[in-house]
Amino acid sequence: MRSSARPGLSPTVRRLALVALTLLVAAGALLGAQTMIAGKDLARANAGALDRSAGTTTTTTKVAAPVSTSTTTTPAPVAAVAPAYATGNAQLDALLGTLPAMLFAGGAHVHYGYNPLDSCCHAGGYNPEPNEAWIGPSAFSNAAKLTYVTVHELGHSVHVKTSRNAALTAAVAGAPVVRAGQWDDSEKVADCIAWVLYPAETAASGITYWSCPDPWRSRVAAAL
Ligand SMILES: [Zn+2]
Predict the structure, then answer these.
(1) Distance from the CA of 32 to the center of ligand 1, in angstroms?
(2) What tens digit of pLDDT does each residue of 32-85 get?
(3) What is the assigned CATH class of domain 90-223?
(4) What's the CA-to-centroid distance between 153 and ligand 1, angstroms?
(5) What is the value of pTM for the model shown?
(6) How would you write 22-64 as a 3-class SS string?
(7) So where are the chain's domains?
């Protein structure tokens, strides 16, 4: 009798076939996954391209932000500030930076040193031409004296070189002579400006022409 049973495959061949089938399925699955990932990547790239072509700054901002952050967190060297004054003396330069702008309205240039046009070594000097104030070494014996001398010399330029000239001269009219000669009015005005702006330093200096009492002090204050 013929056996209906077909000659069966050996168990080894069956196992190999099963393994081959499994590998085939697995390879197919992997291929599909790779295609999906590639598709996603492509979609992202296109989206980015659209963003850029649309001119949106979102992508650029996200990239640039860390750069700017690192720049700001890194302490940048502070640029040296050019000195506002260059008299030749640091203490005088520092004082000038604290004085009211009105004192520079006459445009005087302040220098450290004894007045080259002066016969001797006065603490301060003012030359209407070329509109220079000189602050000499003897003015630096104390801070009050330095302040008074500097404000007084600048006061001359305010009196001589600004539109306040007539009002300031009128403000000291009738006052006693403090320095005989052509500078009498200007010395009174310059001292009164110092008394108005820096009364404590002016009093402590001990070298004023006069005390600029009222009514002249009030008049000068009103004319400034
Ligand atoms: Zn003077």
Answers:
(1) 99
(2) 444 343 333 333 333 333 333 333 333 444 444 444 444 445 556 666 554 468
(3) mainly alpha
(4) 6
(5) 0.64
(6) HHHHHHHHHHHHHHHHHHHHHHHHHHHHHHHHHCCCHHHHHHH
(7) 11-73, 90-223
